[in-house]
Amino acid sequence: MKLKGWKELTPGAVITEAGNAVQFKTGSWRSFKPVWIEENCIQCLFCWLYCPDMAIKVRDGKRAEFDYDYCKGCGICALECPGRKGNKAIIMVEEGK
Amino acid sequence: MAKIVAITGNEAVAHALRQVDPDVCAAYPITPQTDMMQRFSSFVSDGLVKTELILVESEHSAMSSCVGASAAGGRVITATSSQGLALMWEILFIASGTRLPIIMPVVNRALSAPLNIHGDHSDAMGARDTGWIQLWSENAQEAYDNTIQAFRIAEHMDIRLPVMICLDGFIISHSIERMEYLEDEEVRNFVGEFKQLNPLLDLGHPVSYGPLILPDYYMEYRKAQDEVASKVSSVVLEVAEDFEKLSGRKYGLFETYRLEDAEIGLVIVNSAAGTSKDVVDEFRDRGIKAGLLKPRLYRPFPYKETGEALKHLKAVCVLDRADAFGGSFGPVYLDIATSLYQYKKKPILINKIYGLGGRDYLPEHAELVLNELAEIAKTGTVKSYKEYISVRE
């Protein structure tokens, strides 16, 4: 994103466009990455419910892929995932490995 | 028709605020401001204004409420003195950095410790770099006139900054003087309808106030604020011109008194300037070319114009009713010195600290200083660049 110069700013740092958090891709903060293992997924959508951002996509009522542009790697989805027969459907993998 | 009355400075300013009829006032009582806000709260109780009066538990809360009400989209006022202004400190920067046009009379009083309730400029001088505009007032009339003009300056779409109107505690706030009121309607027409800028309560256009600004943008916001400060002088003059048409009273960035052909001069703000002008007249009668400059717009300080007005003098004394405890000089001295530094030919500049904690400033003090300046102008020798006057050894 091109940074604005001082003449282009709103007085007093007031944000006039609602919902602009989408412009900030916070995925680069991540040090651990959640990985989805589809065969262990029971489609409970706990991960979608618990995600503090909106980094888990749902398509036609079904769990879809992660949105890595916004996933900060907090690991809540992996913790809450009940998995299937003791096998987690989300695991955290160190970034860069 | 102007109405002529005998009135205290606090009452005069309270009436200016009544005539403007702001949307919100959040204030906490402190001597010597108390009686101004007490009078204003009577106007609220008596239904003379429609203002929502918020009674808060401290000045920190008073200024915080003002920030909220101003961001919401209201025309907002408060008033304070001394320790109250000190307690507002943190929020003063939030008001100016958020560009909220809050109006605040400051009835100047000394800071503790030692505890003192009397006239002194330590409070507002300490707040000179908070990003607020400061207008200083010699007497009740100027405090009244500055208060009315402050709304137009603060709310100007190119400015949107908060304004302090400074008047001397007790000397002006509690002494009765003759002054002229404008008619209520004239004041209302002069200040006009309040124009909102990105108000929080405009639900059709949701906005966020107070975001975190990191190193990638913080300097740009500061640069933008500095740029706004550079526009204040011209807006102050434009408003003063309109005010003169209405009232017949002329205001500038500062007042010069017999300064054009002067060789020695005093620089002094607020009430003590009146006493000094009398003494300047006495010196003129004796054939000594004395003059005076009284700053009015003190923040942002008009360095260029002030330097131009003083550069031809031989010797100048800046009288400060506050000290800057940095082992150097009083605050006004530092600004006058800065405004003159760039000129090759400039006056010798000395600093006197006077009147702290309400100590009387008498004609003989101005006389002593002018005699010393006359000697400096003649000999070019300075015995002391900074000195406390009227102090016991």
Question: What does this protein structure show overall?
Answer:
- The complex is a heterodimer of chains A (about 100) and B (about 400).
- Chain A has about 100 residues and is an alpha+beta fold.
- Chain A has a single domain, classed as Alpha-Beta Plaits (2-Layer Sandwich), CATH 3.30.70.
- Helices cover about 10% and strands about 20% of the residues of chain A.
- Chain A has a two-stranded antiparallel ribbon. Chain A has a two-stranded antiparallel sheet with strand order 2-3.
- The longest helix of chain A has 5 residues.
- Chain A is elongated and about 60 Å long.
- Chain B is α/β, with parallel strands linked by helices and about 400 residues long.
- Chain B folds into 2 domains: about 240 residues, Rossmann fold (3-Layer(aba) Sandwich); about 140 residues, Rossmann fold, CATH 3.40.50.920.
- Chain B has 12 helices and 15 strands.
- In chain B, the strands form 4 sheets. Chain B has a 6-stranded mixed β-sheet, sandwiched between helices.
- In chain B, helix 1 runs parallel beside helix 6.
- Chain B is globular.
- Chain B starts with a strand and ends in a 5-residue tail after the last strand.
- The model of chain B has no long low-confidence stretch (mean pLDDT about 95).
- The chains are: A alpha+beta (about 100), B alpha/beta (about 400).
- At the A-B interface, loops of A face helix 8 of B.
